[in-house]
Amino acid sequence: MKKTILLLTSAVLASLIGHAAEVETYVIDTSHSSVKFSIRHFVAKTTGNFSEFEGTLTINRDDLSQNSVEATIQIPSVDTDSDKRDAHLQEDDYFNAAKHPLMTFKSTQWKATEDENQFKVTGDLSFNGITKPVTLDVELLGFGEGMRGKYLSGWEATTTLDRTEWGVNGGQPAVGNEVNVTINIEAHRQ
């Protein structure tokens, strides 16, 4: 009887261990990803992007609310299709890139929504020497095998930021305060 109980207990434990959530790490593929923004300028919108960034997603496919993400953007890589404007954005009244060349984001919470592929991702956004919490609306676009056998995940995140909360005050009132951000990520599993 003791032997039967021991075998049964061992089988249950082995089953639980075998079904433990596997955490996967994905690294952002910058050649298939983008960080874009738009901001009002007088009566129209000006767009731009950051071309140099990197990041890592930690994914728990059994419970996506346990995911996390960390990313870094190189401020000097800003591109608005105007060399003069891009240079001005590096100055003290905008990004102050000489003193603070990086923008970072580190998630603190992934909250599921009614749609199984939609999440509210809260985290700390730091740039210009200031850290503030922000919430991103994140959509899981999918998982799948890409070329050369690489396993991929795809994500899209959007948010609106008030740039003045990070001390970016240049150009007012001609330049608006609200910045619309759209991030598309394709990441490779490690």
Automatic annotation (TrEMBL):
* Name of the protein this chain belongs to: YceI family protein
Q: Signal as a keyword?
A: yes
Indicate the segments annotated as coiled coil, or none if absent: none
The record, for SUPFAM superfamilies, names: YceI-like
Secretion signal, residue range per the UniProt entry: 1-20
Which Gene3D superfamilies does UniProt cross-reference here? Lipid/polyisoprenoid-binding, YceI-like (2.40.128.110)
Under the heading Pfam families, the entry gives: YceI (PF04264)
In its keyword annotation, does this UniProt entry include Phosphoprotein? Answer: no
Q: Which SMART domains match?
A: YceI (SM00867)
Annotated ranges, domain Lipid/polyisoprenoid-binding YceI-like: 25-188
Q: Which organism is it from?
A: Coraliomargarita algicola
Superkingdom, taxonomy of origin: Bacteria
Q: Which UniProt keywords apply?
A: Signal
